[in-house]
Amino acid sequence: MDTATAHIVQPKLPETSEPDWEVVILGAGVGGIYQIKRLVDLGVKATVLDLSPDLGGTWYWNRYPGARFDSESYSYGYSFSKELLEEWEWSEHFAGQPETLRYCNHVADKFDLRRDIQFRSRVTSAIFDEDTRSWRIALEDGSKHTCRFLITAIGPLSTPTLPRIEGRESFKGKSFHTAHWPKEPVDFAGKRVAVIGTGATGVQTIQTIASEVGHLTVFQRTPNWCAPLHNGKIDAETQAAIKAGYGEIFARCQETFACFIHTPDPRGAFEVSDAEREAFYEKLYGERGFGIWQGNFKDILVDRKANATISDFVARKIRQRVTDQRVAEKLIPRNHGFGTRRLPLETFYYEVYNRDNVELVDLMETPIERITPQGIRTSEREFAFDIIIFATGFDAITGSFDKIDVRGAHGAMLRDKWKRGPETYLGLMVDGFPNMMMLMGPHTALGNIPRSIEYSVDWVTGLIRFTLENKLTFLDATAEGTADWTDHVKALGAGLLSSEVNSWMTGINSNVEGKQTRIVARYSGSAPAYRARCDAVAASGYAELRLG
Ligand code: NA7
Hints:
By secondary structure, the protein is an alpha/beta fold. It has helices at about 30-40, 60, 75, 80-85, 95-110, 200-210, 235-245, 245-255, 275-285, 290-295, 305-320, 325-330, 350, 400, 415, 450-470, 480-495, 525-540; strands spanning about 20-25, 45-50, 115-120, 125-130, 135-140, 145-150, 175, 190-195, 215-220, 225-230, 345, 360, 370, 375-380, 380-385, 385-390, 405, 435-440, 475, 545. It is globular, with a radius of gyration of 24 Å. Ligand NA7 binds near residues 196, 198, 200, 202 and 342.
């Protein structure tokens, strides 16, 4: 035994217990697609199971009007293939959902990955069998698979939640959740439409359909701070510059805190004069993308007073952009500061409220009492609708895990282990759930997600290669490693203003039983620090794991 494998503790299995697959990946979204590519390249017998009829994950399901990136397209796509970067042309700085779905399909076709993906395969349970050191996976249709290693790529935002409002089923018109949007176009012409929810999804939907519908009523519970996206077509010259600059773009994403191309300003908000601060905010407000959030003064997300300066600035912008000042005041958040929830990026969102056919209903003043066969009744009045759109979000981060009966060693249930909030090792593993790795699981960084995905997939692939090279059939995080990482993630979240705010990022969902207490569900340290930590584990021959 060499030093790299000196920590191998579990006795080896007899050679006979071969599972169906070396690896099963759950989910054929951006993570699953890249993971299967890496495993195919490694020559591993692997398959992907996805409940959807086709690939794309988030980009398959979220086909609501106006769905698009708010990371720059060229910083979002995969970076692993030079040829792919060379041949694919993003048409806009922030591509829309149809284009992104085409991109996912292009990648799968180019690398011939479809044959390794099984669609309409809804996994109901995954149970670890200690005797054979493999996972037994059961599907809704009764079929079963066994695998040595299980990789979850089920997405942090993939379990939509409908509002818990009485009478929801009684509505006689059409209703859609944004994440279950029909493939056929929805005809809005002349229709009376309601949108419930004003998160990133609601904002994109509202600004897109306002000019198409007969009348739009927006039901807003908590207003969110929004900033302009400033999207635009990519012309030929810019396209060439992007292609020539990919090396630099991805290098930049590697250096930044959350893998966006935007880097925080090293100054504090009060290290400059009032006039300089105002000019800086004005500049950021006029620029593309998340710069105003991720490239702002270093202290706006941790210091209440610094945060108040940018919140005041954006509040003034809202007042300028919305004609009716009573409406403007309703659109300005009061219970959280700018950027402390996920920042929706918008395109003439505020101007929508200047239209004659749009009305804002503030649910803080007049709550919804029930959904009726004709529409929605608030404490104030009855509204009639042809269509109700639920932009009410997701059972985020842990929701997709909760839907599967995941059981590790000794029958332990993941749901139970995470009852009071997730516990993970590097966001990649959970002690007591051997041979399971998670991509974009709890306690990993969100940010520009494909960048984090590529890193995690590469790390997991490295670990699988290590097990193959060393003929290992068992790996598990230690209880100590899991407790340490969980404490570390909690400590990182402690100083952030966002940790004091209810949102899907802090595990709150008013529509899901038991999700009313804030938890630390995401890693909020820097991506470079995260990668350094994970790299060190790999370099040590995974010395922190139990292997066998
Ligand atoms: P979000 O950001 O969770 O937003 C959901 C919205 O729906 C939010 O405005 C909620 O108000 C509202 N909501 C939820 N339930 C209700 C009920 N019962 N009544 C009224 N209003 C309700 O989800 P999104 O889909 O917009 O975005 C999720 C992420 O996906 C996004 O950040 C991107 O990263 C992609 P609340 O704030 O809870 O008062």
